[in-house]
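User: Hey, quick favor. My workstation is busy. Could you predict this chain's structure for me?
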Amino acid sequence: MRSYIGGHQAVTTNDFIELALGTPPELWLGEEGESEEERAARLDAARDILADNPGLPDAVARIAVEVIEAHAPELFNVVPLTRPAIRRRISRKGAAA
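Assistant: No problem, here it is.
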């Protein structure tokens, strides 16, 4: 099965992220082994994109929340913790203290 978003084929998870954000995730996260010069250029590009689209951080946060809400069980293997029962001291006369 092929997935197309706006005429672009999305094959990998990164493809879907890039199409949702409109930018590659590496622009925001960086890449392993990038030089200081590459990092500075990447951050300059990111600043330009944010200046042109000030609503982008809100859109990204909204997408992140939607993904977490939809996929929380498989993304976060969380087991709810139970609270221990509260023990009350019993006085010698049998009344709870």
